[in-house]
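Morning. Coffee machine broken again, so started the prediction first thing and wrote up yesterday's gels while waiting. Chain of 358 residues, entered below exactly as on the submission form.
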Amino acid sequence: MRAAVLHEIGQEKLEVLDDVEAVGFGPGKVRVRVRATGLCHSDLSAMNGVLPQPAPFVPGHEGAGEILEVGEGVRGLKPGDRVVLCWLPACGACPACRRGQTQLCLAGFMNAGTPNFKRSGTDCFGFAGTGTFAEEVVVDAGCAVPIPEDVPFDIAALIGCGVTTGLGAALNTADVQAGSSVAVIGCGGVGISAVQGARLKGAAEIVAVDPVASRRESALRFGATKAVSPEELADAKQQITGGEGFDYVFEVVGRSATARTAYENTRRGGTLVVVGAGAMDDFLQLNMFELFFDEKRILPSMYGGGDVLRSYERTVALWRAGRVDLAGLITHRVPLTGINEALDQMRTGTALRTCIEI
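Came back before lunch.
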């Protein structure tokens, strides 16, 4: 089958190959024909080594498709079912799951170390235990979440990561209060979803911050009340908050420098939400006095900070009701053979989300 493979960490381009095999099918597993997948910035981070991932590997973790085959013991799924792929399934039995913090379950991360592809007898991994830049993928049954018939594959793919992460950061983690002021730093697909979440919660002011003009323009269409470049953020803070700082600031880049900027633009007693996935050797510096004196809440948000399955259902309901715009997030479409074009679109910021149609 066809898949896009990164041979070594640090390479900038993927090689689209026709001789890759999806492996590992058996009890408790399902084989999925991938129909659509989004390109998330985390895929780039895995390719360049910011996020740990063994190589060679097939990137992609934001996908949707239909089940081809189910393994022994699988219940509730059958061939032909339409599913969204969940890269962080909950086991239901670990301490995090028992506490109701299913987004912190580590079972899904264990899958990342198990090869689920082969090529010429050589093991090949799937990013985050999935690897959706492929025509087929074998995953644990818990990774395949049924979707209603009226949800297109491209929309379902976005729900699989970016939309759930951004919306959940505003709805679950921050629980943005009506009438509040919000700044979102980094307005790709996840950041725009955070903007939409803040709008849903009734934020009075939503400032989108991004160096790319086209993304700033898009943010205004999705509910931002103002869009500025990073250099203009200080002026926006002064105009909107009188210099006090925003009630909520979302960092959706994954770098200590932008997290520090986010902290400095959060008012005393306000909330900084860290959404971006950064490197293990990139440290955010805070001095102990400001940490105590400012009493700012620093809230990391993992995969939307809530139960993933309920978040999927909520997003579908909001999409059906016209309360969130998911189709508008897809600014570019390419076939799998055009995956390197999609990578360039992500790197330059010209795309909010590129849908790879497989």
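The radius of gyration is 20 Å. Going to sketch it on the whiteboard this afternoon.
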